[in-house]
Amino acid sequence: MIVLMVEHPPERNTSEEERFQDDYYSYFESPENAPRYKPAVSFLDDAFEQQSFSLLDLGCGNGALCKYLPERCDYFGVDHSELAIEYCLKVYPNRNFVAKDLSVALPQLVAENKRFDAVVLCGLLFHTTDKETLEKKDDQELIQFCLDKLLTEKGYLVIIVPFAYGDHPSHNLYARAEWLQNSVEEMLETAKAKIVYGNISLLIGLDKKIRQQKTTPDWFVPDSNADYSNKYAGTYMATWTFLAIPSER
Ligand SMILES: C[S@@+](CC[C@H](N)C(=O)[O-])C[C@H]1O[C@@H](n2cnc3c(N)ncnc32)[C@H](O)[C@@H]1O
């Protein structure tokens, strides 16, 4: 029997908006971070071979996923950071973006009868917050909503979970990866969805890239100084990718 640890991510010291201002997220666009996006893109590219497909990117940040998507993908990115969306519109003028909180954007999409062949939650689970209060939103509810109300009949829910790991036994890659896998699998099972693809990739050299940044993210702690009571601290980066569809399909 698998016993799940129920734990909550650490409190952030800065809001998402402040972090964009601080250049916190520029590492998303670095080549070392490509394995965060490429497995999912490659799956979708094959699944919708030579056909156009629509994709909704929830919490799109600086739109780095766009770097890897084929032209034939009809992309729509949503983020509540106005700074992030301003940046996206400048860098990817041929793609569509909107600056809105998910609590506003998602019901609007449903009211407009919009559905998508892929709904992407990349770096969003365990990070979804209210912009004003920084209150954490319910990941289970978000997954259920996407599966029930936003996917087309042939659509995929894409869950990408980047995470930090370190050399300490409780921070090792296996322990972290297993905890996240169990946690995502449990949410998908509750939402009556099945995983059709899973991949774990190591982001080689991203630790160096992050350390070169002006500000080191508050979750990123070099091993020698790591607070090992904090399950989220770590030195290196990896990414889980899961693609899921409703179980009855
Ligand atoms: C860790 S970043 C990931 C960015 C991007 N998906 C990527 O991986 O390249 C999380 C993003 O989710 C956005 N976000 C968090 N909660 C949100 C909400 N309730 N509504 C809209 N965007 C949200 C943040 O502004 C931030 O850009």
From TrEMBL:
<dbReference type="InterPro" id="IPR029063">
    <property type="entry name" value="SAM-dependent_MTases_sf"/>
</dbReference>
<dbReference type="InterPro" id="IPR041698">
    <property type="entry name" value="Methyltransf_25"/>
</dbReference>
<dbReference type="GO" id="GO:0008168">
    <property type="term" value="F:methyltransferase activity"/>
</dbReference>
<feature type="domain" description="Methyltransferase">
    <location>
        <begin position="56"/>
        <end position="132"/>
    </location>
</feature>
<dbReference type="GO" id="GO:0032259">
    <property type="term" value="P:methylation"/>
</dbReference>
<keyword id="KW-0808">Transferase</keyword>
<protein>
    <submittedName>
        <fullName>Class I SAM-dependent methyltransferase</fullName>
    </submittedName>
</protein>
<keyword id="KW-0489">Methyltransferase</keyword>
<dbReference type="Pfam" id="PF13649">
    <property type="entry name" value="Methyltransf_25"/>
</dbReference>
